[in-house]
Specification:
Helix content: 25-40%
Distance between the termini: 88 Å
Number of strands: 0
Low-confidence stretches: none
Number of helices: 3
Shape: elongated
Order of helices and strands: HHH
Length: about 100
């Protein structure tokens, strides 16, 4: 066994823990508040689908009105795929899909 060094004071009784001085009601479970009732004048609705905004300020479209008309004619003929229309007009396929209703 190790001896206690002489320069260390012996400890006295341990102090009372902090939680012993707190009233027991502090540790009791708190009741959960009841949820507020739904207001009848405000029906619960799901999130509305996003609506495509009209073009406004921002990056201008790559396709001109003339190009859109040409793409619509090519699509209506049934001879061209979206990739072929895009290659012919020099734009990406996603641009074609954005401007035409496939």
């Amino acid at each position: 066994m190790r001896d206690t060094p002489k320069n260390v004071a012996k400890s006295g009784p341990r102090p009372e823990p902090w939680w012993a001085t707190v009233p027991p009601e502090f540790f009791a479970p708190k009741p959960k508040p009841e949820p507020a009732p739904l207001k009848p004048d405000k029906p619960v609705t799901r999130r509305q689908p996003t609506v495509r905004r009209t073009p406004g300020p921002g990056r201008p479209s790559v396709m001109t009105d003339e190009m859109i008309e040409d793409a619509k004619k090519m699509h209506a003929s049934g001879e061209y795929s979206a990739a072929e229309i895009a290659r012919e007009l020099g734009v990406s396929r996603s641009t074609i899909f954005r401007h035409l209703d496939f």
